[in-house]
Amino acid sequence: MLIAITGGIGSGKSVVTKVLATMSYPVYDTDSQARRLMTTDEVLKQELVREFGPSVYDADGSLNRVSLAAVVFNNQEALERLNHIVHPAVIRDLERWYSRCSSEHAFVETAILYQSGLDAVVDAVWRVDAPVQVRIDRVMLRSNLTATQVTERIRAQEAEECHAAPDAVIVNDGVMPILPQIMRHLKVLK
Question: Domain with 113 in it: what CATH number?
Fold first, then answer.
């Protein structure tokens, strides 16, 4: 069974997946794998260069994240083109990874489950929730973003969070312990 761990920016998805990984469950992180694929997958690299120009890669073949961000930042159409190229590659890679998993349950961490099309690949959805102010504080602590910038990112993800009800919800508010919630949801899977 492949289970998505999803939730908005700063909700604590990574905390939940780290707990699951510590418990020896396989976890696929879409963000880090997308970054890896954009550097190692030659077909994906060619598509990105064709769409956005050669400046998105440095001479050594590494992704020029600054250049790519400059193209897609505040340009919804360019961001959609980028996602249309990258998301299928991530899904293919996830499917290859999952086909090699020997665990009864595996997890995939993603902030954009529905937008990416990953919802069609997973068997269940666990959403991680936290109060908005907690999310803002967390993101500000780990990045150079202002409260306004974090709030804009949260608003941009709101449509993603309005889809079908998840199979499970984990509250990561800094008060309610996470491990008992994870254990309760794992029991339901067995």
Answer: 3.40.50.300
